[in-house]
Amino acid sequence: MSQERWSGVDRYVEETLVGADGALLQAAGASAEAGLPPIALTPALGKLLHLIARMSGARSILELGTLGGYSTIWLARALPADGRMVTLELNPSYAEVAAANVQRAGLAGLIKIEVGPAADSMRTLLAAGAGPFDLIFIDADKQGTPEYFQLALALSRPGSVIVTDNVVRGGALIDADSEDPRVQGMRRFHDLLARERVGGQRVTATTVQTVGAKGYDGFTLALVER
Ligand code: DHB
Ligand code: MG
Fold first, then answer.
1. Is residue 32 within 8 Å of 41, Cβ to Cβ?
2. Strand, helix or coil for residue 2
3. With 90 as the cut, is the pLDDT of residue 143 above it?
């Protein structure tokens, strides 16, 4: 099986099921135009996040790693009219692109974009008594994932769902002596989850491997139990 076939199937799923419309296509186009790295979710995975948000009845969502707002739009569209979403982005020029995309999608009223290091913004949210969030999507720098997950738990409640992107890394996840700090970040993240009890809360999780237009990777789906 090849990358060509994975991309072909992604296109097929996009055409048959996903229904990415004007605002999403515009967001992807404007992000490419602005020179953002081409690392946004594929449409099929964007729709998966949207479905997870709807299936879990999420009314509040926190995202780490806004990039151009493509995943932000998929997620915010799962919210009820009185829902809210906070999305964290380190790079101010990415955040500007995202703000324009979110505005064009008609979602600016639901979404707050916070610029700065994700861990700092999360501590600020905690101090302000924000949360708990029903759904948290972790898709920022990969080394930071273990810390982000622990902060995410502090911003959660029993029943919250935490999705983490890019955990499999072409299969490198099982290379214990990898020198890639992103791989080691995802291994420490799995070590945390394996303990089940993190920061006084109990979580249960699985990791799903994916192939598609962006190659071979995967995501972790975690449920805060208590
Ligand atoms: C990278 C980041 C992502 O969030 C992703 O989905 C793919 C790649 C990266 O930093 O290379
Ligand atoms: Mg990602």
1. no
2. coil
3. yes
Per-residue tokens: 160: 């919250």
| Interval 41-81: pLDDT, tens | 999 999 999 999 999 999 999 999 999 999 999 999 999 99
User: DSSP assignment of 103-137, as one string?
Assistant: HHTT-TTTEEEEES-HHHHHHHHHHTT----SEEE
Within 8 A by CB and 6+ apart from 73, the residues are 23, 24, 27, 101, 102, 105, 107
Atom of ligand 1 nearest to the CA of 139: 4
| Nearest ligand to the CA atom of 214 | 1
Degrees, nearest 5: CA angle 35-36-39 = 135
CA angle 138/10/189 to nearest 5° reads 25
Judge contact between 60 and 81, C-beta under 8 A: no
Joined together, the tokens standing for residue 122 give: 């999360």
If you measure from the C-alpha of residue 65 to the centroid of ligand 1, how many angstroms do you get, rounded to a whole number? 10
Q: Longest C-alpha distance within the chain, in Å?
A: 49
Nearest ligand, measured from the Cα of 142: 1
Structural domains of the chain, ranges and CATH numbers in brackets: 3-224 (3.40.50.150)
Rounded to whole angstroms, the Cα distance separating 126 from 39 reads: 29
Q: Which pTM value belongs to this model?
A: 0.97
Residue given tokens 């029993």 in the structure block = 158
